């Protein structure tokens, strides 16, 4: 329903009708629309986390970071309405579940960076270590995803190779030169 009409087009009653439940039955699971939207956001972050966790561990950390970025961009492209909802202005949302799920998706990326630091293949310098590198990765792919989605249909579809080069350039800057 979110794909068809956006988050504004979703209601507990409409969903109940679509899945052949009574509204009262759904209200046992969701107190209101905000709870329902929180569950949708949480599910999106869990799917994103699962995709990041599925990246083979046998790749070197730099390749895993680039792949995590590609996975992120693919998820955003495949589920644009859910992606926008996941990162929508959250004021007034009851977002306990989606906050925890979002953190777990971020932690999946953070763990890849940490494994690279522990293996001495990723730099860990004062003032630019695990948190800065992971945040930088997330910020880059989030920005790329938003540009791609906001300007979909405006001739930017050819930029996938450019996006990969941007990710590779960032990773090259955090990988030890000897690796």
Which descriptors apply to this entry?
179 residues; mainly alpha; Tetracycline Repressor, domain 2; 2 domains; 9 helices; 67% helix; 0% strand
Verbal overview:
The model has no long low-confidence stretch (mean pLDDT 85). By secondary structure, this protein is mainly α. The protein has helices at 2-5, 12-18, 23-26, 33-53, 61-78, 80-86, 96-118, 130-150, 160-174. It is built from nine helices and no strands. It has two domains: 1-30, no CATH class; 41-174, Tetracycline Repressor, domain 2. It starts with a helix and ends in a 5-residue tail after the last helix.
Reading off the top of the CATH hierarchy, the class of the largest domain is best stated as Mainly Alpha
The largest sheet, given as strand count, sense and whether it forms a barrel, is:
none
* Average residue-wise pLDDT: 85
Domains (count): 2
* Class derived from helix and strand content: mainly alpha
SSE order? HHHHHHHHH
CATH superfamily of the largest domain: Tetracycline Repressor, domain 2
Q: Which CATH architecture of the largest domain? A: Orthogonal Bundle
Concise synopsis of the structure shown:
By secondary structure, this protein is mainly α. 67% of the residues lie in helices and 0% in strands.
Q: How do the strands and helices of this protein lay out in sequence?
A:
Layout: H1 2-5, H2 12-18, H3 23-26, H4 33-53, H5 61-78, H6 80-86, H7 96-118, H8 130-150, H9 160-174
Helix pairs in contact: 4-6, 4-7, 5-6, 5-7, 5-8, 5-9, 7-8, 8-9
């Amino acid at each position: 329903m979110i794909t068809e009409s956006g988050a504004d087009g979703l209601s507990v009653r409409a969903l109940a009708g679509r899945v052949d439940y009574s509204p009262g039955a759904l209200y046992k699971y969701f107190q209101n629309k905000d709870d329902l939207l929180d569950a949708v956001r949480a599910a999106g972050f869990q799917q994103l986390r699962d995709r990041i966790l599925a990246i083979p561990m046998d790749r070197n950390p730099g390749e895993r970071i680039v792949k995590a970025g590609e996975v992120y961009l693919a998820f955003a492209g495949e589920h644009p309405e859910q992606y926008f909802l996941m990162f929508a202005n959250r004021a007034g949302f009851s977002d306990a579940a989606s906050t925890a799920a979002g953190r777990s998706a971020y932690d999946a990326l953070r763990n890849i960076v940490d494994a690279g630091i522990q293996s001495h293949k990723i730099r860990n310098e004062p003032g630019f270590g695990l948190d800065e590198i992971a945040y930088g990765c997330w910020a880059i792919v989030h920005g790329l995803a938003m540009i791609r989605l906001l300007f979909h249909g405006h001739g930017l579809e050819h930029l996938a190779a450019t996006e990969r080069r941007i990710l590779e350039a960032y990773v090259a800057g955090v990988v030890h030169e000897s690796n």
